[in-house]
Amino acid sequence: MVAAAFVATLLFSLLSCGTAPTTSTTAPQTTTPPVAEYTYRIVNTYPHDRGAFTEGLIYSDGFLYESTGLYGQSTLRKVELATGRALQNASLDSKYFGEGLTVWQDSLVQLTWQTHIGFVSSKDTFSVLKSFSYATEGWGLTQDGTRLIMSDGTSTIYFLDPATFQVSGKIEVKDKGTPVVNINELEYVNGKIYANIWMTDKIAVINPGTGNVESWIDLTGLLPPFSNPVAVDVLNGIAYDAAGKRLFVTGKLWPLLFEIELVPKA
Question: Which InterPro entries does the entry link to (predicted)?
Fold first, then answer.
């Protein structure tokens, strides 16, 4: 009996020691950083071809390079900033609607809208070196020094291998969790993707790692009213001079191109 009682006591002691105290844990709360808002200050104003239906715009080696759209009117251009004059001009076949544009090494890479075909052209001569295909529509195009970055009018931004033009990754663009659609012309500026949002006067500043919109640039009222029988179209066209830290914007059929400085909204 004594032995049995001893064993029972020992067992109770061991079981009690092995019982961990009950604790409750709460997952850490993650909060989305606030989205900053900016307006603008006009630094300089330059002429822009009133007939240019701007779809892609870049600044390189002291000149603007522009891709224009519309069937039968699509072009690739080298433009003098101070005058807006096209120094070089190559027309696309009438079956192509020109879209996004970027520079890659010594070449210009240009998208077309719904034909799923892009072109790589010599930056010097504008002669077409090769073409490539993609599954989606072509809207905006830029690059980050390693990858091409492409939009297709949805909330998705694609990263392409510049050697093969194959998709190497993608992000979904969201503003505080809500998808942002109609992403159009793109420009890579200081580690962020600047994106025109079609049919608005706003540019989204996007984190390329997460897809989150980190800030909005509101360009409402940038273009003053003009008396002209040819109506202007939407804001579209972002170019950045990295050496001079100058940001340029324009629109489709706009008579002006603006150098702007961002100003935090009050």
Answer: QCT (IPR007788), Quino_amine_DH_bsu (IPR011044), WD40/YVTN_repeat-like_dom_sf (IPR015943)
Residue 11 and residue 204: Cα distance in Å, rounded?
67
Residues 164 and 135: beta-carbon distance below 8 Å: no
Looking only at Cα atoms, what is the longest distance across the chain?
A: 111
Burial 95-114 (b: 16+ CB within 10 A, else e): ebbbbbbbbeeebbbbbbbe
CA 142 to chain centre: 7
Mean pLDDT by 10 residues, the chain (266 residues): 40 40 44 86 97 97 97 98 97 98 97 98 97 98 98 98 97 97 98 97 98 98 78 94 97 97 93
Query: Distance (Å, rounded) from C-alpha 72 to C-alpha 133?
Result: 21
- With respect to residue 35, please indicate whether it lies within any of the assigned structural domains: no
* Interior/surface letters 254-265, b for 16+ CB within 10 angstroms, e for the rest: bbbbbbbeeeee
Identify the pLDDT of residue 227: 62
pLDDT of residue 2: 37
Structural domain of residue 250, as residue ranges? 46-264
- Name which of 160, 152, 118 is nearest 136 in CA terms: 152
Chain centroid offset of residue 189 CA: 9
Indicate whether 159 belongs to any domain: yes
Overall domain count for the chain? 1
- In this prediction, residue 15 carries a pLDDT of 36
The pLDDT of residue 28 = 47
Q: Which of 54, 104, 105, 60 is nearest to 75 (CA)?
A: 54
Q: Is residue 37 part of a domain?
A: no
Q: What is the CATH number of the domain that holds 123?
A: 2.130.10.10
